[in-house]
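Need a sequence for this fold. Nothing fancy.
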């Protein structure tokens, strides 16, 4: 048997008034997901246990079939691993965003939509002035970068506010808090002054476009202890495609092959079809028994409060990914003499349009394919999946056992 997991990042939602009090999943024209829901097993899974921050590091760890408490790793350390950064025992890695503050409010947690090329150049210029024996900046993708702090373990114990949690809200209450906070405050202040005269910002201001005004650190983590390899834990080999360093880092830490696919981004310009093609090629070539297709776009649209684009992202997943998986499944079914294919589709967490940030809750999932029986859902929606009565709560990570029929 072969397997495919499609992670519709942040697709789960609450009722949206602009959509007639429907969720994005309920509003989307997603014929294939709905077909698979009717023919497959549906339920809900709590991917983030109570007490943990609702973040993709815990949620995606669960989807990969690992207990996010027993295998907890700070997100900064995961994203550092994605970049090949080796952390010393006295180093802490934090995610650091390029952000835009206007009149004291978090106008853009993504630096006004800065491109990877511009953002890497900007961070490189800042690193020349800010890197020292304590701080090291590493450029990443788009607005997402890494800050490594050496010799100051107290930064692990500070409280942080992810910038996407305070979109269009006052930024000052969200600054790092706790004993030793001044270390990061001083760095942020120095970066703020340097950014005023950065060439990128001078061009943006002249063009009357949003500049990057600040760096915003959060999500600390230290070098993880040895984590179990995916194949050793689940008995199958795996490959993954994603646009974000978090998933790249999880792949590295759990010994999952990461597929580099041209055109894969975190937005609506993502090449959804290319992700599906790469995954199917890995299955056909026996490079992997299981493939993970992680799509970031629904989450980004949720953070932006763009309900129309969130619906469109779900529809693109259905049209460009699920359709191809359905065709591949028919061609390689057990009945047709092939190995068979099972598909798991689910979000990692809720990213409601109303709050524009991650929210807790058990997310809807479907498992479809060879040997999977229907359990009553009529479509792939939050309500229909909940109506089946199948709930993996609190052990959402056991959804992998259902997929693999353990």
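Here you go.
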């Amino acid at each position: 048997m072969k397997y495919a997991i499609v992670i519709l990042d942040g697709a789960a939602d609450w009722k949206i008034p602009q959509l007639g009090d429907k969720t994005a999943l309920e509003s989307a024209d997603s014929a294939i997901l709905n077909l698979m829901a009717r023919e497959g097993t549906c339920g809900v899974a709590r991917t983030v246990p109570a007490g943990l921050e609702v973040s993709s590091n815990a949620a995606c760890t669960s989807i990969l079939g690992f207990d996010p408490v027993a295998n907890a790793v700070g997100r900064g350390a995961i994203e550092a691993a994605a970049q090949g950064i080796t952390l010393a025992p006295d180093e802490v890695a934090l995610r650091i965003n390029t952000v835009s503050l206007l009149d004291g409010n978090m106008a853009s947690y993504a630096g006004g939509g800065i491109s990877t090329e511009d953002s890497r150049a900007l961070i490189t210029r800042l690193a020349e002035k800010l890197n020292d024996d304590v701080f090291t900046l590493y450029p990443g993708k788009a607005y997402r970068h890494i800050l490594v702090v050496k010799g100051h373990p107290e930064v692990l114990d500070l409280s942080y506010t992810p910038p996407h949690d305070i979109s269009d809200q006052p930024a000052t209450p969200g600054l790092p808090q706790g004993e030793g906070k001044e270390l990061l405050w001083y760095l942020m202040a120095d970066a703020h002054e340097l950014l005023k005269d950065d060439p990128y910002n001078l061009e943006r201001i002249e063009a009357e476009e949003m500049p990057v005004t600040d760096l915003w650190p959060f999500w600390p983590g230290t070098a993880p202890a040895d984590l179990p390899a995916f194949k050793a834990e689940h008995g199958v080999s795996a490959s993954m495609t994603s646009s974000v360093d978090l998933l790249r880092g999880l792949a590295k830490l759990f010994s999952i092959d990461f597929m580099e696919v041209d055109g894969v981004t975190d937005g609506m310009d993502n090449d959804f079809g290319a992700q599906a093609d790469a995954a199917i090629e890995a299955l056909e070539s026996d490079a992997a028994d299981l493939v993970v297709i992680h799509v970031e776009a629904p989450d980004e649209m949720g953070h932006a409060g763009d309900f129309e684009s969130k619906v469109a992202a779900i529809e693109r997943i259905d049209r460009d990914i699920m359709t191809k998986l359905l065709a591949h499944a028919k061609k390689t079914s057990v009945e047709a003499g092939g190995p068979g294919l099972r598909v798991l589709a689910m979000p990692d967490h809720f990213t409601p349009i109303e709050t524009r940030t991650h929210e807790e809750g058990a997310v809807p999932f479907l498992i479809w394919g060879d040997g999977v029986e229907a359990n009553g859902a009529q479509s792939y929606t939050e309500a229909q999946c909940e109506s089946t009565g199948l709930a993996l709560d609190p052990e959402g990570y056991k959804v992998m056992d259902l997929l693999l029929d353990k």
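For context: The longest strand covers residues 91-102.
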